[in-house]
Structure formats: structure tokens, C-alpha cells
DNA sequence: GAGTGTGAATCCTTTCACAGCT
DNA sequence: AGCTGTGAAAGGATTCACACTC
């Protein structure tokens, strides 16, 4: 789903399934933690537990990357970190711009997770002239009039949209026209983009609504029979967060305050 | 994904596929927009375009809810809004607590999308004593010592975790112990919860990493010529238009202002 | 003995295409 | 004539289970 589906059938099989790609960052995070604790190797079982997936899935996922494990032993942590980083394109530095420096944009700018893993906040952009020059997370906000120039000067190909829904499509169009080919959209709107541009969306209220659905069901079930099924036993989360959706994101409006 | 699955073979079988559930909020948003414009009915084709999915999928999704359309005509907007809201459990009011009122927590508290659709921010909770009493989005922050009491007094069953990663599991445990059964997790950690508790996660850096993967692939593909440099100095120009999504084939506008 | 790598089976999701209602 | 609702086909993703390697 999301993202570059298209060019696939043809050419060489660098064919890693989307579902696998979506889990690689998870594995990477777990591996990084192990690496920091100087753990030299892990079994699929251990790593799977740390990442919150099951081990068969993890092994299958890794099999798409190649045979990086050792039978009877497990995986070399450092080596795997490198391989996954390379596969994800994180061995290089990606300059990112964030457009829309409201509460959310500021939160994103301050979010350490970006900088830590291959991403660098190259610029913050906002339409409000009053914001211009003000530093957020140590980076001065620039006015959106200069959007195209900023994109080009910094060679940015990834943009983050954190504007109100009403402004998102226009911002998106300008980003794309200026050369951005990947967009992470936080605005609750469906973005329309040309082919070849990837959009992923993160939609807070949608996630809550999905939870509400399950919550409601639980309430209904209880009514049926209080059952004696042993509760508990521990499971792991997982969920995929942010349904990825097609090349575009979500839906039209109804906006926030 | 997530969610406690399978208990019981399910007598009732309110069996709506997860993938469908994840799209219902999307449809709902599109329908709400139509409703506000007083549009009385929509065809699956139109609604699908607005939601960014294809019409066959949409019809199949709706078929799990029942037969709410009229052949030859389409769907009654108001009626569908009601049916989907009910299915998602949004006809009732869900009190939500947000734990961790940093940049992100504040952004969430201010996010209008919550209040608008069945959710009510019942309380903001933070571990920093200095925050206590300070209003964020008009709601006074409360100290985390009182977490259990707050949950119980407000009958909260949905919690949002926006704390740093290190604090997330402990907060999660306390929420669950106090009665919360659905958690939306923004902290970059895998949460372990008892069976019967749903966790969905939203992970910003994972989304970016997925984009980087595809971005890298694009760069590699056009490697036939030019460059030699990193992704930083890209000059793009592909983009052939025609986002696939819209089954109708309307070509997106690519121009900015 | 321990643990990876992977065909084969299973399950879930999407897409097709058309019968059937209005 | 138009559009929904849905079996059936196709495609993915997950899980099983075991041969194979260290």
C-alpha cells in the first residue's frame, strides 16, 4: 500500500514487501538498543520479543534482505544494524523541512528521534510573518514565501506537513513543484500528488477512532457473559499505527481549531 | 494488528475486518464534509474519490456493515454518517487522558480533531510538579501522582501516552492497572500489556524511515545518469501526474500559488 | 543442541466482474 | 440506465514446520 507501488513488476527484484519495510525501523530500534548495551548477538526469538513481533515473521523479513544470520547462533547485532540502516537508506543524511510550525510542528522540530537516525531538520517554514526569525528547537523559522528557494538550496526531498488541513494541499503542491518527492502528512486531509511522489499520513483522530471501535466491542462482549476465561497472559502490542493508505493520505476536512 | 484478537469463536460475529475498520474513520470524515455542504447522497465512486480509496473497496467495506445504499442511486449521506459513527462507537462520548504534556502532549491537547468526534480530553497529566496547575488548551495539568484517581473518577478507558520513551512502560502499567483498556502510544517504545488491552502506536521516525527507503530507491533508479552525489543535491523532474488513487482519473493540480 | 532460512499451508485483503435492485 | 452488493479470483502477508547449518 502506501508508497511507491508502481514500478515493481519489471526490473530486478529488490523486491522487499511493504509490510517488511514497515517493520525494519522497528528491528533497527531494538538492535540499536542492544548495540548500546554491547550485546554482540541475538537470536530471532529474543529480537522478535524486543521488537514486539513473532520470530517466524522476523526471520522471514530478514530473509528478504539476505542471509545475515548464523545457524545455531543468531544474528550479529552490529552487522545487522548496518545492513538494515543501509537498506533503509539511513547511512546517508536526509535533509527534511517541516512546514507549519504550530504546536505540532514545534513538537516535531524538537523530536529527537529525527536527528538521531539519518534525518536532519534543514528548515522550519511557516506562513505567519510573526513567526519568521523566531527560533524553534534552535532553528529559525522561515517564511513560506521562500519555500521553493529553501527546498532547492538544501536539496530537500522529504517534507513534513503540519499545517491546518485547509493549507495542506497548497503546501503539498508547492513542495512537490519544488522537488520534494516524499511527504509525511499530519494534516487530516487527503493529499493529491503526482505519480512518483510518496505520501504517508499520520492521523491522530483516526487512531483514536479505531481504538474506540475495539473499546466499544469489549464493552459489548462483557455484557454477554462475564466468563471465567483466565485473563492476562502477556502479549505484545504491535499494531501498525497510521494506516498507511494509498499514495495519498486521508480525507477532506472538518478541521481542527 | 494490535488488538486483542480472537478470544472466543464469536457467537456474534460482528466480524468486520480490521482493514475495513481502519478505513471507516476515513469515510466518516469524507461524509462529514459532504454533510456540511448539505449534499444528500453520494455514489461509491464519488465517496471513494474523496476518501482516497477505490470504489470497489469502499463498497465491499460498506457491505460488512449492512446494505445501507440504494441501487441506482448511492448512499444517503446523513444515514451513513450515523451508521458509521455508531459502528465506531462514536455516538457515545469517550473521555481520554493525555499523559506527558511536553511539546507533543500540548499539541495533542490542542488538536481540535479529538473533541470534534466523540472524544473529550478529560485530563492532562504530567510528572513535572512545575507543570501542575498550568492550563494547556484550557485544561489544568495534573500531577501524575493522582493518575489512578483521575482515571477512576472520570471513568476513562482510553489513554494517550506522549511521554519520553523511558517513562512510557511505567505509565502504561499504571494506566492499565487503573482500568484503561485502550492506549494510543506516541513514545518510541514497544509496550507490553495484558491480554485484552489494545495498543496502537504512532511513531514519527518510523514513518520517516519508510519514506527514506522509498526515496532511496527512487534515487537508485534514476542512477542511470547524472550525479554521483548524495541525495542532497537532487534535481527532480519525474512526476508524471495522474495519481492512481482517484479511480476517475482526474489529474491533480501540480501548481502552487 | 540450537537456531536460521524457507517452501508450503493458511489467512486476510484487494480487485474483478456481474447479477440484481430501483 | 445506473449503481449497489457480493461471489469468485488474485495477490499479499503471516504462520507452520522442518531441512539444514554451525
How are strands sequenced across the largest beta sheet of chain A? 6-7-5-4-8-9-10
Tell me the number of helical segments of chain A per DSSP (H or I, 4 or more residues long).
9
CATH class of the largest domain in chain A equals Alpha Beta
DSSP helix fraction of chain A: 40-55%
CATH superfamily of the largest domain in chain A: NAD(P)-binding Rossmann-like Domain
Name the overall outline of chain A: globular
> What is the H/E order of chain A?
HEHHEEHEHHEEEHEHEEHE
Helices and strands in order, then pairings?
Two copies of one chain form a homodimer.
Chain A: H1 18-36, E1 41-42, H2 44-51, H3 55-65, E2 69-70, E3 74-76, H4 77-88, E4 94-99, H5 103-110, H6 112-116, E5 119-126, E6 135-136, E7 139-143, H7 147-154, E8 158-161, H8 165-178, E9 182-185, E10 198-201, H9 204-224, E11 234-236
The structure holds a DNA duplex (22 and 22 nucleotides).
Main location (chains A, B): cytoplasm
Family (chains A, B): Belongs to the transcriptional regulatory Rex family.
Organism (chains A, B): Streptomyces viridochromogenes
Describe this structure in a few short sentences.
Chains A, B: It holds the Pfam family Put_DNA-bind_N. The structure is a homodimer of 257-residue chains. The first copy, chain A, has 257 residues and is of the alpha/beta class.
Report what the structure shows:
- 2 copies of one chain form a homodimer.
- With 257 residues, chain A is an alpha/beta fold.
- The first copy, chain A, folds into 3 domains: 18-87, Arc Repressor Mutant, subunit A (Orthogonal Bundle); 94-202, 3-Layer(aba) Sandwich (Rossmann fold), CATH 3.40.50.720; 205-243.
- Helix content of chain A is 41%, strand content 17%.
- Chain A has a 7-stranded mixed sheet.
- In chain A, strand 6 (135-136) and strand 7 (139-143) form a beta hairpin.
- The first copy, chain A, is globular, with a radius of gyration of 21 Å.
- Mean pLDDT of chain A is 84; it is low at 1-13, 225-236 and 238-257.
- The interface between A and B is large, with 115 and 107 residues.
- Strand 11 of chain A pairs antiparallel with strand 10 (192-194) of chain B, so a sheet runs across the interface.
- The first copy, chain A, binds a DNA duplex (22 and 22 nucleotides) through residues 17-20, 43-45, 54-57, 59-60, 62-63, 67, 69-75.
Amino acid at each position: 500500500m502506501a508508497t511507491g507501488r508502481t514500478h515493481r513488476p519489471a526490473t530486478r527484484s529488490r523486491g522487499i514487501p511493504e509490510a517488511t519495510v514497515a517493520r525494519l525501523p522497528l528491528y533497527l530500534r531494538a538492535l540499536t538498543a542492544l548495540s548500546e548495551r554491547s550485546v554482540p548477538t541475538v537470536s530471532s526469538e529474543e529480537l522478535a520479543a524486543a521488537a514486539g513481533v513473532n520470530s517466524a515473521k522476523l526471520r522471514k523479513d530478514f530473509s528478504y534482505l539476505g542471509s545475515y544470520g548464523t545457524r545455531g547462533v543468531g544474528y550479529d547485532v552490529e552487522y545487522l544494524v548496518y545492513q538494515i540502516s543501509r537498506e533503509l537508506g539511513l547511512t546517508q543524511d536526509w535533509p527534511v523541512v517541516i512546514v507549519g510550525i504550530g504546536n505540532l510542528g514545534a513538537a516535531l522540530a524538537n523530536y529527537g528521534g529525527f536527528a538521531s537516525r539519518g534525518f536532519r531538520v534543514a528548515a522550519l517554514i511557516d506562513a505567519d510573518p510573526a513567526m519568521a526569525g523566531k527560533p524553534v528547537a534552535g532553528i529559525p523559522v522561515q517564511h513560506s514565501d521562500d519555500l521553493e528557494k529553501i527546498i532547492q538550496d538544501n536539496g530537500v526531498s522529504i517534507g513534513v506537513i503540519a499545517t491546518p488541513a485547509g493549507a495542506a494541499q497548497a503546501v503539498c503542491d508547492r513542495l512537490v513543484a519544488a522537488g520534494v518527492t516524499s511527504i509525511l502528512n499530519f494534516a487530516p486531509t487527503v493529499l493529491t500528488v503526482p505519480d512518483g511522489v510518496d505520501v504517508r499520513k499520520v492521523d491522530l483522530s483516526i487512531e483514536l477512532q479505531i481504538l474506540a471501535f475495539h473499546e466499544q466491542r469489549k464493552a459489548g462482549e462483557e455484557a454477554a457473559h462475564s466468563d471465567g476465561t483466565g485473563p492476562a497472559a502477556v502479549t505484545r502490542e504491535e499494531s501498525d499505527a497510521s494506516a498507511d493508505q494509498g499514495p495519498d493520505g486521508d480525507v477532506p476536512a472538518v478541521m481542527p481549531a
